Structure prediction request, 1062 residues.
Amino acid sequence: MAKQYETVIGLEVHVELATKTKIFCGCSTAFGGAPNTHTCPVCTGMPGSLPVLNKQVLEYAIAVGLATDCEITRYGKFDRKNYFYPDNPQNYQISQLYLPICRNGGVEIETEEGGKKIVGIHEIHMEEDAGKLVHDEWEDCSLVDYNRSGVPLIEIVSEPDMRSAEEVIAYLEKLRLIIQYLGASDCKLQEGSMRADVNLSVREVGAEEFGTRTEMKNLNSFKAIARAIEGERERQIDLIEEGKAVVQETRRWDDTKGESYAMRSKEDAQDYRYFPDPDLVPIIVSDEMLDEIRAKQPEFRTEKMARYKEEYDIPDYDIDIITGAKHMADLFEATVAICNQPKKVSNWLMGETMRLMKEKEVDVEDLRFSPENLAKLITLVDSKAINSSVAKEVFEVMFEEDIDPEKYVEEKGLKTVNDEGALRKTIEEVIAGNPQSVDDYHNGKEKAIGFLVGQTMKAMKGKADPGMVNQILKELL
Amino acid sequence: MSDILDMTAVELAAAIRAGKTTAVEATEAVLARIEEKDKELNCYVTVCREKALAQAEAVQAKIEAGELTGALAGVPVAIKDNMCTEGLLTTCSSKILGNFVPTFSAEAVLNLEKAGAVIIGKTNMDEFAMGSTTETSAFGETKNPWNTEHVPGGSSGGSAAAVAAEECFYALGSDTGGSIRQPASFCGVVGMKPTYGTVSRYGLIAYGSSLDQIGPLAKDVTDCATILEVIASHDEKDSTSVAREDTDFTKALVDDVKGMKIGIPKDYFGEGLDEEVKNAVLQAAKMLEEKGAMVEEFDLSLVDYAIPTYYTIAAAEASSNLERFDGIKYGYRTPDYEGLHNMYKKSRSEGFGEEVKRRIMLGSFVLSSGYYDAYYLKALKVKALIKKAFDDAFAKYDMILGPAAPTTAPKLGESLTDPIQMYLGDIYTIAVNLAGLPGISLPCGRDSKGLPIGLQLIGDCFQEKKLIQAAYTYEKGRGVFPSAVKKA
Amino acid sequence: MANIISDETIEYVGILAKLELSDAEKEQAKKDMGRMLDYIDKLGELDTDGVEPMSHVFPVQNVFREDMVTNSDTREQLLSNAPEQKDGMFVVPKTFD
Prediction:
């Protein structure tokens, strides 16, 4: 009988914090600037420059630690991690090895079997991001852009507590939700504001000891993570079955090829010579500082769910979906605050919004329409200024470019025609033009009226109130 | 004014304010002296003649308009070449920064400029401040103005020699293990290392970040206190900068040591100390005693451990601080290379000199996997013990008195052959940096060869004023020390 | 000399420090480093059990900046010292992640 193997997975998750400025200097963290325009002597390693810690970075890191049940380190320091690479302007990265800001936490995830399980968090530390290497298309060289150099990161190191790709994704989704709720990061995997390195080993089921692990990098979607885990599990099992040893190494996942390869070179000694950074002073976290951060912690999901049930009277299913993403919950609350129609707002989010997100492959974080405009749309329908099918059309445009529905309806002439005379005239024409259906109706085929309503709406370019059309039709017939 | 160069910085500023001379005249006089002397002495890496004259004119106009009234306004200054000066070559006396022009100025330099200083140029030094003789400079050694066969000391040798040779009125240096105090001693000038954190390190190209401090090299104690008062500042750009309220150092220029308790560490007067140096220093102690100080000998302990502790910590920090010199963003890049790592290695191997490479190698080793605890962490623990030994001493004494260096300036070419022997020359200065303390070195005599001898006073953290007061009192009692130019 | 530095060690430290030494320099470096380490070994004479390593001399702590943008585009200055630049970026030998 073939041996049974268990996969053991731990994650190192890097999250870019949503600060306005970099971790050690006053440069903007905004995306999209021309290369090297968000830089200064500090984040480009100019001789004589010195780092000063951004207080917001510390507060976000502590907030994430508190939300993941970590112990907060009361006496912390920064250390230098020394390695040469062009995206690292000082050739050392300022990070935390010896006294990371948070330790010994965990988050609860739901397992495939429907049970619950805690994934332990070994530590969370603060560090600076590296710049970007661009590969020149024309010449045999690379180019360095330091705009991202010094953007604040926290690295969340889990315990090796996960056993499958599903658990890994459940853990990542949970982390993402917590951090988004805190407003500490937008956590977009595709854009790299959340990045996960996977440490994986396999062992025979029942074995006490862990196997030798490898670390996999370059995973920028949940799908890639799942595929990489499956690929690496198989690779390791094959090696073991062939009697070969798994080598402890860092591997790069190539998602298009569906395989990983070792990132190794003689010049890459992986001996980082960490030591306390003498340019930065120790961090003392006082009780007062912790209390302040605790007081600022937002409402988390479970609290929010309870409140929604109490305040809004919408179905549990809706609450579950809406609170499942911070941005969605924010949209919901902001829209309800304007129009005070929780059920209708929920219907728009659960129905059309979800449908279009799926159809157009848009992430929750990238939803563009504003609460103001969604509220206006709901009011337009309520006041019968437009009918529901026109509303859906308008919403689709809003979904793309957040237009003001009132103006749009006005400009495009989409308002429901309330002029009974005009409507009557059109219906008379429809009746005259469709004798067959009229006969069918008179012969007891109730359904035929549906066709006539449809024809009328078509003639009115959708701008009629269907209730009114029905009423007049019946009357004239 | 033929003897303008004889003036101290404070005297010159007073003369300019009084309209007896101008910043431009002073600058021209200094430039003429450099023209005359510096081919031989090599105090400067860069002299910015035109810029200095333009700056002098601008400063003079402001003095006349009453906008600049400070005690140093209009006085020409030389800056050690490891402090960034915007638009002015800053090399650290290294080939690797041979073409580096900073885009900002060090905070200490900005403070001087605000006070109306005229920057004459950048002084020679041991490469990246690693050395005790200024012989490791990539741009040739500086010679001691008292005797050009001898070294000026280091690493701020160019600054000390420039002051002694009257090629400037005062200079800034940096002190990581004695780099201000030892060359001040060798060149017969006054040099002071302030308490760590007193002068911003922003813009100082780091050697050992936890030890480096900028300080003045000057003709007398009054100048020294005046300069320190100007350059000391709490800088938000330097996390290790200390907010102090007691930086009115000139208030301590008082001729009185009555009741001061001065400890003389027996361990500083043992083997290796030159007899003539010893006698001169003890003579100085005696004078302070005569002026009313209580002087007594004591055991400081751990003196022999300071050098190995220092070299471990300084080399480790240096190995990391100097990683940024990689041929990508600034400085030297090797012309021929294959691939990234080869470019790094060749640029750095060709760009750094021998002593710098020696310390980078040592520093990388003591931090490397398997050796960190045994070497680096051990050194940090011994540092704690050394700090404790000083704390105990300062519980009993207001200051510690000793020599600045075991000998007077050695001959050129004698020191570099044996690194450890060279490191031993730092024995009296190094512990001060490990403990972050202030120290001042001032001339207290000359040996039979006519070379100056330096007296060192060491104070507790933030006690510069006590040092200034005692040094000032000693200076008054000693009388005028001859200049290297006149040697009378 | 108690500390014997091997060729491998010098080679390894050279990789860490990105220094390429000639054979003669390597021999010298082996000697120098061995002597320095012998000298540093003197610290072993001291009992430091229970002593807290001192990385910072003063109890200066919690030095922070507020999260406010203070810097503007200074790219031209940044690149003014670059040995080689292109399209507003630093040029380096072709490098793969």
